[in-house]
Amino acid sequence: MYSDEYDDTYDAEEVSPRADEREDARRPFVTPRALQARHAHQEESEEDSAAEEVPSTSSRNRMDFCVNPEEMRARREASFQARRGKGHRPPPPSKNVDVIGKPKGQGQEKDVLANRDRKEKHKSARANHNRR
């Protein structure tokens, strides 16, 4: 048989599925939640929980496709302001890391000498480590 010819091997036999047989007999078809009507779902939930009426505290609508950027910025700014005062430590006081001392012959202060030693010791930790 040539590759461009039609293969009629299975045409004589009835191999198609029966019309009365469903695709999946184990599970019935269920409409996805996203495609269900919102009001129909609310009516069912109202019947189930008629005694329990708790007002929704969420100000956002769950069906919004995207959140309004202005509201998002306002919420983020409010949370930043709330966190700002709580647990915020001020930065430590800046240490004097000055290596420039007094002119020659005047004598050097102890902290300037310590800073020079520290700079000499940690020279290799930065780029251009062979430069002073």
Number of helices: 3
Major pleated sheet? none
SSE series: HHH
**Multimerization status:** single chain
Rg = 38 Å
**What is the β-strand count?**
0
Kindly report the average pLDDT value.
75
Query: How would you describe the shape?
Result: elongated
- Helix/strand/pairing category: mainly alpha
Uncertain stretches: none
Q: Kindly report how far apart the N and C termini lie.
A: 85 Å
Helix content: 25-40%
Strand content: under 5%
Can you characterise this structure?
30% of the residues lie in helices and 0% in strands. The chain is built from 3 helices and no strands. The chain has helices at 38-48, 69-85, 110-121. Residues 1-14 have a biased composition (Acidic residues). Residues 15-27, 107-118 have a biased composition (Basic and acidic residues). Residues 119-132 have a biased composition (Basic residues). Residues 1-132 are annotated as: Disordered.
Which SSEs are present, and which pair or pack?
Elements: H1 38-48, H2 69-85, H3 110-121
Question: Which properties best describe this structure?
Answer:
0% strand, 3 helices, mainly alpha, 132 residues
Summed up, what is this model?
The protein is mostly helical and 132 residues long.
